[in-house]
Design a protein that fits this description.
It comes from Ligilactobacillus equi DSM 15833 = JCM 10991. The chain is mainly α. The chain has helices at residues 9-12, 14-23, 30-47, 49-52, 56-67, 71-92, 103-114, 119-128, 130-135, 137-146, 148-156, 163-167, 170-176, 180-201, 206-225, 230-252, 262-271, 275-283, 296-300, 309-331, 333-353, 362-376, 384-414, 427-430, 444-454, 467-472, 484-504. The chain has 3 domains: 1-112, no CATH class; 118-255; 262-507, no CATH class. The chain is elongated, with a radius of gyration of 32 Å.
């Protein structure tokens, strides 16, 4: 009977809408049920009429219709809406009403805003629209708290779902856990989900591990929030599988822009004549590459908008190339001596430039270079503890010196413009590309990419190596993190930062 509501048609069909409003006395048929929601829609449109049209004639006629609506009568009709809905819910959810959006949607919104309805009604609604209750869970939390069997039914809709769907439930499950009658149900669901993830991680197929690791991290964040002791186990699990996931990504990820193999880098190093040319070439400009541009693999995992899977592949590959280059430098005495001489040359210039700032970098830089040489001279020894100790010294000193170089560069750029408390300029704030005043010697992309290596990035810090904090606090460090290969990585990052500062200050 009533096929739709269009704001501009009110003036043209005044009698039509007048009849709908005046005749709405009860709700015993589908026409009257639809009419009730048409009247509700008219009221909502009235609030927005100034934004919808500038036509004063339409506004006037619309106001005349609105003035006919009896708010008290509508309130009394709410009970009849529920009575009719309880008896005809399947019919309501199968009927499409043109221009009324979707009758099922406006019905669900009505229930959400007004509450009420018997459990049998909700059983049907959960069956046909489970996602609505997930998205609007806080509005229905009281209902589920009183009727935990409905919550069980809701979760059963997802018991055979994929990891992505189950992971999307975690915020809702965290909220549900605050209800005493729902806590046990939530914990049981989480335990089953946890077992499914662990089983997937036990697979020998790298592909299975790759598409599971990100969901493990999501569950780990959930377990940390509820202070569940199983979080410790999941931390170890996630770390142990990260390398396998990266291996799969490197082999099967999107095309990577890294065209210079490390052997060619070293060949050019040997031919370069100046200190700047040597250092510049071994770090290239890979860290100035921007992130973003999501690919298919990002749709299947929980990657970050900037640190997409394709970009993480680029960053990991860049680091591996840098690691290989510096490990080869360690292996050959002549290259090691040349590298030390090049770095020392620029540290002296930077130290002289900073007479009026905090203590210079030359002494600390020489400490780093001495430890790097000691490690290089002991690569063949069998004492694993000594190798780990020497590697840690290089890694920690490289991180500390990177932070100091960045801080001094920031002061150099800004001390004449603003007051900068040195204590406030720690690595995290120095690498924050969103600061109102940021390092100008580095591009925004360069800072973000450095942060991936030295800090943690992404949603709730789910991505990144976080080398600085792990080394400084001896936290989440494995034996594999303290070796000459990782030390070579940190020397690559230190050299990258040094070269950018050399360029900015025109020491070339």
């Amino acid at each position: 009977m009533y096929t739709g509501v269009i704001f501009g048609s009110v003036a043209k069909k005044f009698n039509f809408y007048e009849e709908i409003v005046k005749s709405l006395e009860q709700i015993r048929s589908m026409d009257e049920y639809v009419a009730y929601f048409i009247v509700q829609l008219l009221q909502k449109l009235d609030r927005d009429k100034d934004a919808i049209t500038d036509d004063e004639n339409i506004k006037k006629r619309f106001t005349e219709i609105i003035n006919l609506i009896d708010d008290e009568k509508l309130k009394k009709l709410k009970r009849q809406v529920y009575i009719f809905l309880n008896q005809h819910v399947e019919e309501v959810f199968s009927l499409e009403v043109k221009n009324l959006c979707n009758l099922s949607d406006v019905t669900l919104d009505f229930i959400k805003d007004n509450g009420g309805g018997n459990p049998k009604l909700y059983e049907y609604l959960i069956e046909v629209r489970p996602w609505y209750f997930i998205w609007n869970f806080d509005d229905f939390k009281k209902l589920f708290g009183k009727n935990p069997q409905l919550f069980v039914q809701l979760l059963k809709c997802y018991e055979n779902s994929d990891f992505h769907s189950k992971s999307s439930l975690l915020p809702m499950l965290l909220s549900a856990r605050s209800k005493s009658k729902l806590k046990g149900i939530v914990d049981e669901f989480i335990d089953e989900y946890r077992q499914e993830l662990e089983q997937a991680l036990s697979s020998e197929r790298l592909e299975d591990i790759y598409f599971t690791v990100e969901y493990v991290k999501e569950l780990l964040r959930y377990l940390r929030k509820i202070k569940d002791k199983r979080a410790y186990h999941f931390e170890v699990l996630a770390e142990n599988q990260e390398e396998k996931a990266t291996a799969y990504l490197l082999e099967h990820g999107q095309e990577i822009s890294c065209n210079i193999p490390w052997s060619e880098v070293l060949t050019t190093w040997d031919k370069s004549s100046t200190s700047y040319d040597k250092l510049k070439y071994i770090v290239s400009t890979s860290l100035d590459r921007a992130g973003g541009n999501k690919g298919l693999s990002d749709l299947l995992t929980l990657s970050d908008d900037y640190y997409t899977n394709a970009h993480v592949v680029h960053l990991e590959t860049t680091l591996l190339v840098g690691q290989a280059v510096f490990y080869e430098i360690m292996m050959k005495d002549e290259r090691l001596a040349e590298y030390t001489e090049c770095v020392n040359e620029f540290l002296i210039k930077i130290d002289q430039l900073d007479d009026d700032l905090e203590e210079g970098v030359l002494f600390q830089g020489q400490m780093l270079l001495d430890n790097f040489k000691i490690l290089a001279n002991n690569l063949t020894i069998k004492d694993s503890t000594l190798i780990s100790t020497l590697s840690y010294n290089v890694e920690m000193l490289a991180c500390a010196l990177i932070e100091k170089l960045l801080r001094k560069q920031f002061l150099r750029e800004n001390m004449d413009k603003i007051y900068v408390p040195i204590k406030e300029k720690m690595l995290g704030s120095l690498l924050d590309h969103q600061n109102e005043v940021r390092l100008q010697a580095f591009s925004q992309e360069h800072l973000q990419n450095l942060k991936y290596y030295l800090g943690s990035v992404g949603k709730e810090g789910s991505l990144g190596h976080d080398y600085r904090n792990r080394l400084a606090h001896l936290a989440r460090l494995k034996n594999r993190d303290l070796n000459p290969q990782i030390a070579a990585r940190m020397m690559y990052l230190f050299t990258d930062v040094l070269v950018k500062i050399v360029e900015w200050n025109d020491f070339k």
